[in-house]
Amino acid sequence: MPSTDATTRERLLTVAERLLLESGHDAVSVRAINSAAGMNPAAVHYHFGSKDALIAALLEARLAPVWQRRLDEITERRRGGWVPTVAELVDLVVTPLAELAADPVGQLRLRLLARFVLGRREQAWTSRWFGLGPWIELLRDARPELSKAGAAHRWLLAFGLVLQFFADEMPGEVPVGTLRAFLTAGLAGS
Prior knowledge:
The chain is mainly α. The protein has helices at residues 4-23, 30-36, 43-47, 51-79, 86-101, 104-118, 133-142, 148-166, 176-188. α1 (4-23) crosses α2 (30-36), α4 crosses α6 (104-118) and α8 (148-166) packs antiparallel against α9 (176-188). The model has no long low-confidence stretch (mean pLDDT 89).
């Protein structure tokens, strides 16, 4: 049976996501989240510390599982000696985001993630896949001549572009295939 704190946290996350979907980030207050969840006025601050921390927890809880299965498979294959290609790494990032973008709740999550990452908001993510470290390792497996710093710079540019693309911030209609080709060339280029 889940603990009361875990149940309360999940209720706050669920209510916050519903309100954010209905009204948007700027229109949703901590007070509105607490009220809609039937909680006391300090519940969000007690369980998360701030609205931003609640949203970061929401994103991590909802998005980490999107990649986890795929990433577990890649980790297992790497143990067996497999080396990923850059195109496979791009697919690992783009495919789940394209699937999310096809759904209104997924679109909300992508917009919120873009807001956090592109806005350079610092969060203490707990999932290792929300940091650059594992992605740098994977890219260096595919391109061993890259330094850690070089791989990090490429991923920062790639993730920024991907988030802009899927958060609906890209001008015009750029096909996902074009995004994949551009990312592959940028990550693999010399």
